[in-house]
Amino acid sequence: MDVKAKNYIVISTLLYFITQYLGPYYPIYLVDQGISLYTLSIFRSIQLISNTFSRLLIGFISYKHNKLLLISLGILFNALGFTLLLIYPSLFSFILIGTGDALISIYLFVYISEAEIKERDKAFHLSRVFSSIAGVLAGMVGSFVSSPSTIILSASIVLYLTSLTLTLYSRNQEKIINTYNTINVLNIEKLKKNVFSIFSRNVILYIFINILIYFSFNYFIYTWPIFMKNLGFHEKDLGLFLSIMIIILNLGTLFSYKINLDTKNKLYIAFSILAISFILIVNGIFIGVLFFEFAWGIISPNLNLLASIIIRSDYRLPIFSISSFIYNSATSLLLLLLGSSNSLILPYFISFIFSLVSIVCLIFIK
Length: 366
Fold this sequence. Notes:
This protein is mostly helical. It has helices at 3-22, 25-32, 37-59, 67-87, 91-113, 117-145, 148-172, 174-177, 188-193, 195-198, 201-230, 235-258, 263-282, 287-310, 316-339, 346-363.
C-alpha cells in the first residue's frame, strides 16, 4: 500500500472518530440550549451553504500545493467552529465548520485520487473499516463522558492537536508530496470549451443522486439522536447505541468489500436497504436506524469510487467542486423547506422516495 493510501486511512479514521464522538451529543446540546428543530435545520443549512461556496472557490484554485497542509487548515477551522459552538451557538460557528469540512473533503479526495485505482479502492474500503472500529470506540468513550459540553470541548482539543501534528508532518513530507503528478491552475477557457463533454450524462446523474442521498444523510445525522430520545432512550444510552450503529456500519462495509459485484450493483443493494430503513423509521421502529447504518456502510466507499471513475482526472478537482456546489446547494434548500414543517418524520418519508429515485438514476449511469 502506498503512502497516500496509508495517510488517507489514518486521517479518515481519526476524523471519523471525532465525528462520531460528537455525533449524538452536539444536536442534543443545541436543543438543550433552547434551539428548535427548525433553527437547527437553518444552522445545518448554513453549514452546508458555507461548505458549498468554499468547495466552489477551492475548485478554481491550483492544487499544486501541499494538500496535507490544506487538510490541516480545514481541521483547524472545525476546531474553532466547535469551540465557538460551545461558547455561544451561532451561524458563524457553522460557517467555520462547513468551510473546514470543504477543505478536508476536497483535498483528501484529490489526495487519494492521485493513487492507482486499486489503491483507491483499497483505501476507501479499509478506511471505512478502521473508521468503523474508531466509531465504536468513540461511542463507548462518549457514553462514559456523557456530558455534551465536555464532549464538545474535548473533541475541539483533539482537533487542535490533530491540526498541529498534520501541519508538522506535511512540512516534513513536502518533498515527497511534490514528487507526485499534480494539476496546475485550471484553464478556465479550456473548461468552458469542454463543459458539455466534462458534464456528461454520468456526471449529471451522479450529482442528482448525491442531492437525494446527501439530503437523507444530512437530515439523519442530526436528527437520529432526537428520534431515539423521543422513543424513550436516555442520553447516556446514546453512546452505547452509537457503538452498535458503527458495528452495523462496519458490517455493511465488509459486505461491500467482500461481495463479488461491481460498484453499481453494490449501490443498487445499498439504496434498496436505505429505502427500507426510512420506512421503518417513519413507523417509529428504531431498528430502521441500524438498517440506515448498514446501507451507508456500502454507500460511502462506493459513491466515492464511482466519482473517482466517472470524473475525468484532468478536471477532477474543479468538477468535483462544482458538483459538490450543486448538490450541497440543493440539499441546503431541501433542509430549509422540509425543516420549516418542524416535523421529524415527514423528511424521512421524503428520503424513502429519494432512495427509490436514486435506484432509477443509477440504471442510466454507464
